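User: Can you predict the 3D structure for this chain?
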Amino acid sequence: MKLLMAVILTLGLMAMVAGQLPKNEDRMCVHQMLSQGDALFCKGNLNVIYPEIGDVGCMYVPECNDFRQKISSWSQPSIKYSQAHENKKYILMMVDPDAPSRTYPRNRYWRHWLIANISGDSLKTGNISGSELTGYQPPGPPPQTGFHRYQFILFEQPERGKPITLSTKEKAKRGSWSISDFIKHFHLGSPVATNQFLTQNYHDF
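Assistant: Here is the predicted structure, written as structure tokens:
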């Protein structure tokens, strides 16, 4: 028995020296949660779910399995909010407050996605449907700009009031969007749920 264990240990050490990784690389994939300061943004149990990686809410997108590259080309995530009311409508926005970088965010907020008239039923299932005012644009942090926050903000849509839309000026560009003006104009109040994840350009590690 001791001889068998010694052989197994020797073979394991040889594999490490040769630079061979275990076949199951996923166990090397570390899902790091956000710092305490950034984690404060995550409220209300809003799930942001991408293929392969799953729910990225309140975490750094891992380096492993090319996730940081893949997330820049995947289509829109599944958004789930189990506390949604079936008979109510919602508004979802996805923004980057760190455009072009967190230290110099001159294009804050960059609007990656904006959907109005989302049914509560679809939010419960995660396959949201509604009026897409800005088509989904995947995260694309420029090289050498550090980590960017990608924030998802969900509002309950007022039952009465102006139709939710973007002005001609807002439609012309995604960057430098005033979230506060939009919220005030349509009387959205406080969000019912918020979440975010952080990632950086996949060449930067």
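The first helix runs from residue 2 to 17. The chain has one domain: 29-199.
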